[in-house]
Write a structure and sequence with these properties.
single chain, mainly beta, two-stranded antiparallel sheet, 1 helix, globular
């Protein structure tokens, strides 16, 4: 797979040179480790100008996941390895001096899950570009099976009550709204609102929950409405070349999950060629109304059962350190002088069954200009 990513990078570079378009190529690797799960994720992203008013973006990534069995409640859980492949592309164009529109799509596949997304977005600049309004939406179509299950036969899924099929579908309809207002030469205010409506099979085909004296397959409601609103304020201190970013996000859905996520980030410019950043993020949420660590009987709550940790009440603290350096700081020349080398290290403290986690990112972004 590493050779395939290198070949893809060479191909993208060749197209870029042939078209003589400015752009950037980013190669990133992510490592995630918690108590029972390890994820490695190589990614390749490209952004290329198409004429004076267009921008084409593309990405490729691979998730390699090693974890205990998704049947988390089972005593005989065994380790498994899964790979997910994702490709995506987008195009945006400045159609008017103050209006930019775009569309994007992506497709991912693994042994038991395929997902397709298509979306569109528009941005309008007002008040001499001091105010930027954005609106967008998208549709995701997923197909879920138990294809990764071990054994002579693939289990069927209860897509709807009384119906068992080899695979089920899930449709997600999303809406995005955003606003960015320059308050002064050193302050920017940002607002956003996201909404998504899920319709279909929202359960995990492998996860089991303890109900009474037995294990039952997870069963979630077939509909879910998710909403989130966020606010951010960015302040720049010219004397010390420091940016301070404060943000808050509130999430709610009709499964009674409520979440509050404040964070603060400090970005420090170091000379002309480097910057360092520190970030702290706190997250707290309530449990879904039907979630239980153990159910008294096989009836569950309104017929629903779940052992999904993400639906439980928990808190987490994320501490992040980031360093970005331009190539010229190392004495590199020509196009490598503007290359950006970036490293990110995160430590996540969680009071749920997942346990604490370590996340590491390494990235190289190479600009092309001719």
């Amino acid at each position: 797979m590493r050779l395939q990513l290198i070949a893809a990078a060479v191909a993208v570079c060749a197209v870029t040179f042939a078209a003589r378009a400015d752009g950037t190529l980013s190669m990133r690797g992510v490592y995630y480790k918690e108590r029972a799960t390890r994820v490695t994720q190589p990614m390749l992203d490209g952004a290329f100008e198409v004429g004076p008013k267009g921008l084409l973006t593309a990405h490729l990534l691979v998730d390699s996941i090693t974890s205990a069995s998704a049947s988390s409640g089972a005593a005989d859980a065994v380790a498994f390895n899964e790979k997910r492949y994702e490709v995506g592309a987008g195009y945006a164009r400045q159609v008017l001096p103050t209006l930019r529109i775009g569309a994007n799509g992506k497709y991912s596949t693994e042994s038991d899950y395929t997902s397709s997304y298509i979306g569109a977005r528009a941005e309008l600049e007002l008040a001499q570009k001091n105010l930027v309004l954005g609106v967008g939406g998208g549709i995701t179509e997923d197909e879920i099976s138990a294809g990764a299950a071990q054994g002579p036969a693939v289990p069927t899924l209860a897509c709807e009550p009384g119906q068992s099929l080899p695979s089920c579908t899930l449709s997600t309809y999303s809406l995005f709204l955003s606003a960015s207002q320059i308050l002064s030469k050193n302050d920017v205010l940002g607002l956003s609102y996201d909404m998504s409506a899920l319709r279909g099979f929202t359960s995990n085909p492998y996860r089991l929950a303890i109900a009474g004296n037995q294990f039952l397959p997870e069963h979630h409601p077939e509909e879910r409405l998710r909403q989130a609103a966020a606010i951010s304020l960015r302040h720049y201190i010219p004397r010390s070349a420091t940016a301070v970013i404060a943000a808050y996000r509130h999430y709610r859905d009709d499964w009674d999950v409520r979440a509050h996520t404040p964070e603060v980030r400090v970005v420090q410019q170091i000379g002309d060629d480097a910057e360092a950043a520190l970030r702290y993020r706190f997250h707290t949420q309530t449990a879904a109304y039907f979630y239980r660590g153990r159910y008294a009987d096989t009836m569950g709550i309104d017929g629903f059962v779940s052992d999904d940790v993400k639906l439980s009440a928990f808190r987490s603290h994320t501490i992040e350190a980031k360093l970005g350096v331009l190539g010229r700081m190392f004495g590199l020349e020509n196009r490598w002088a503007g290359a950006r080398f970036e490293g990110i290290l995160q430590y996540v403290l969680q009071d749920n069954r997942f346990g604490n986690a370590i996340v590491a990112h390494l990235a190289l972004t190479l600009p092309f200009e001719y």
